[in-house]
Design goal:
CATH architecture: 3-Layer(aba) Sandwich
CATH class: Alpha Beta
Number of strands: 9
Strand order of the largest sheet: 3-6-7-8-9
Radius of gyration: 15 Å
Distance between the termini: 47 Å
Length: 136
């Protein structure tokens, strides 16, 4: 054993480690609403700009649910784990015809999230409303 501290684990879902308390809360709400979902199920190659390419894995993808005929991705950001906004915006530019991106974050962080990173946003205070709509 190395004795060093690794990343914080906030729970598991389907064998995947959840990266933040907020991701665990969203997972619990989705599960409680009967919404089948996966955490970081796929990795995509996204072009950040003309010279930079990066790997991006959506935090949560809903299965069998859609918005505007697209699969739903839920991204989260919290003080303990910031979201990679440039990768999310690049993902939307490249895969926006296939995926509808919802963003959940505390109100003070939502103001920092570029609008190019999501189709719909919700504060953590109102995330129950978003999850309820996605469950319908």
């Amino acid at each position: 054993m190395s004795g060093g501290s690794g990343p914080a684990i906030h729970g598991r879902c389907g064998g995947r480690i959840l990266g933040s308390k907020l991701e665990q809360q969203v997972c619990d709400l989705l599960s409680g609403s009967g919404v089948t979902h996966s955490h970081s199920p796929r990795h995509f190659e996204v072009r950040i700009d003309d010279k930079a390419v990066a790997a991006y894995a959506p935090r949560i993808v809903l299965r069998g649910r859609g918005r505007e005929g697209k699969s739903v991705v839920i991204e989260t950001a919290s003080a303990e784990m910031a979201a990679p906004y440039d990768k999310i915006a690049a993902f939307r530019r490249q895969y926006g015809a296939e995926f509808y991106v919802c963003f959940i974050a505390p109100e003070e962080l939502l103001d920092e999230v570029p609008m190019s990173s999501y189709d719909e946003a919700s504060s953590t205070v109102d995330m129950h409303t978003l999850i309820s709509r996605l469950a319908d």
